[in-house]
Amino acid sequence: MKRIFVTGGAGYVGAVTVPLLLGKGYEVSVFDLMIYGEDVLEDHPNLTKIKGDIRDKEALKEHIHGHDAVIHLACISNDPSFELNPELGKSINLDAFRPLVELSKESGVKRFIYASSSSVYGVKAEKDVHEDMLLEPLTDYSKFKAECE
């Protein structure tokens, strides 16, 4: 069985992603501030919920070891939320990213999946926007997402 470590797993995207992973037979560890409560995710025999902050390197180091993959969803999501506290947004969305990647490598994680945002492309004249297009982030939220890519 593959073990997956999901940062932000009790958030908006994680609350949908984690049950899908569990349904496919994965063992999932969710590392999240749990600001919406721990009951966002239903209990499951293959689910471990860890209340933690991705800026806490020691807590990450304690829990990430032994996982095959990391799905990094933790962030201050969207421009309006980010603008409420830009320093907090930067510390979570940008500053915590590289240490998480490095710790994942050191811990033997084989796959690292990062959830970016379509906002990294800015406003395009084209109707169809695709990943080959030039990144043109317009806000700090989207700039930090692009930088982490």
UniProtKB/TrEMBL annotation:
PANTHER family: DTDP-D-GLUCOSE 4,6-DEHYDRATASE-RELATED. Residues 4-145 form the NAD-dependent epimerase/dehydratase domain. SUPFAM superfamilies: NAD(P)-binding Rossmann-fold domains. This is NAD-dependent epimerase/dehydratase domain-containing protein. Pfam families: Epimerase. Belongs to the NAD(P)-dependent epimerase/dehydratase family.
